[in-house]
Amino acid sequence: MKALLVDARSPLSTPPEPLFRDRMTTPLADPVDGLAEIVRQVRGERSLQRVVLSIPGLVDQANGVVIRSTNIPSLDGCHLGERLGGLLGVPVDVVNDGHAAAVAEATWGAGAGSDDSFVLALGTGIAGAHVVDGTVVPGAHGSAGELGHITVEPDGALCSCGRRGCLETIIGAPALRTAWNSAGGEGGPRSLLAAFGAGEARAQGIVFHAASALAEALLTLCALVDPGRIVVGGGLAQAPHALVTLAEGLVGERATFHRVPPIVPATLGGWAGANGCVLLGLQAG
Ligand SMILES: [Zn+2]
């Protein structure tokens, strides 16, 4: 877990200088009690106005409920906002971690200067969020932006979602690892991209195939959403940038009527989600 504490009077224009910033481990077995204890440690003697918590998984933000958590299954169905708020005596907001990171990138990171960004995270899965005027456009059911499940090869490999040929089955980190290992390569996507950069022949086809699939998905994105900027982050984008650069070139070549926006790397790195929580907390007052 990452924890950031900022002065509630900080301006919204730039990321505030944190009063506290560190990685934390929960000292207690119960996750809610553990979170409360972490907040108490971070707070120290200061008076707290608000806690914003970002969780990987499906979240009912309006009610502070964790519907399904990928990494902490014991939180599934938990009324986290209410329970943690009761323990700490302050309002607690619960948000999706991808949305928090996207808001931060769009406002303080690579999207700064554009009021319309689509922020994409490449990793084990592929998450995306359309951020307009500093707010995620969530869709009618809160599930917009699932770029990883756009079909790019209708007869392709089976995806975790139950369909075939989703973008994730080609450029998700596990898919890249499998393709690389099948070609005799060792290690995961980072080693694949390093080998690509070094000109290794067996890496070329895999990376080109992945970049081509990403380019198709980005063209679909441009056709549907017409974003002002596309920001690409996540673990894979932080690795050698070849995949994104290659995809950007292919998007340019293949575009017809599409208005292709700048495609830029994310700049906030692993602290984007925590920064997004800060931003949402400051916006909430
Ligand atoms: Zn899928």
Automatic annotation (TrEMBL):
It comes from the Bacteria. PANTHER family: BIFUNCTIONAL UDP-N-ACETYLGLUCOSAMINE 2-EPIMERASE_N-ACETYLMANNOSAMINE KINASE, ROK (REPRESSOR, ORF, KINASE) FAMILY. Belongs to the ROK (NagC/XylR) family. This is ROK family protein. It comes from Microbacterium arabinogalactanolyticum.
